[in-house]
Amino acid sequence: MALTKEQIAQRIAKEVKDGYYVNLGIGIPTLVANYVRDDIEVDFQSENGILGMGPFPYEGQEDADLINAGKQTITSLPGASFFDSAMSFSMIRGQHVDLTILGAMEVAQNGDIANWKIPGKMVKGMGGAMDLVSSAENIIVAMMHTNRAGQSKLLKECSLPLTGVKCVKKIVTDLCVLEIVDGKFKLLERAPGVSVDDIKAATEGDLIIEGDIPEMKI
Length: 218
What we know:
CATH class: Alpha Beta
Number of domains: 1
Shape: globular
Oligomer: single chain
Number of helices: 4
CATH superfamily: Glutaconate Coenzyme A-transferase
Order of helices and strands: HEEEEHEEEHEEEEEHE
Strand order of the largest sheet: 4-3-2-1-5-8-10-11-12-13
Structural class: alpha/beta
CATH architecture: 3-Layer(aba) Sandwich
Helix content: 10-25%
CATH topology: Glutaconate Coenzyme A-transferase
Radius of gyration: 17 Å
Distance between the termini: 13 Å
């Protein structure tokens, strides 16, 4: 059975290590802060100038002045810092972020990512995505495996304008966990109840499948 967006975020939260500085992109990645283990210390950074984001607030406890880069209300943890965009992007461009988690419209099997523009549709602009993908050494993509028309978003080559080239390391979708290896998608885990054949059918790009593929643990 395909994962929900929340379950995708739960699985990605397992990739977050103690002491990490982590940037959360817009969309599914913003949910990751809700699922990080309590026994580790992690600093979440938002490109609009926050270091030390916490989980989303409960209904009725929102502070309209405290938002992330996606304009969602958030919480801040004790010791959080607030600063201008210049400082925020100095952190990003200076490679002071250990892990970047982004959403995507398409990912190619060589690690290219397209996540900012669909030709013919109104978009707000690239935002900080270009800086994040060009500076980060560890990028995980959170995305749905197919688009609304049922077409694969994991491709041999991206059809949409690229945000970054050969930068994605790992992808977590509603069907599986994949890693970019030798210019192909290597299947690491599958969602509970999802078969390898299901994943093959939903993936346009080349898949590496070695041995029995375990079900992911949420």
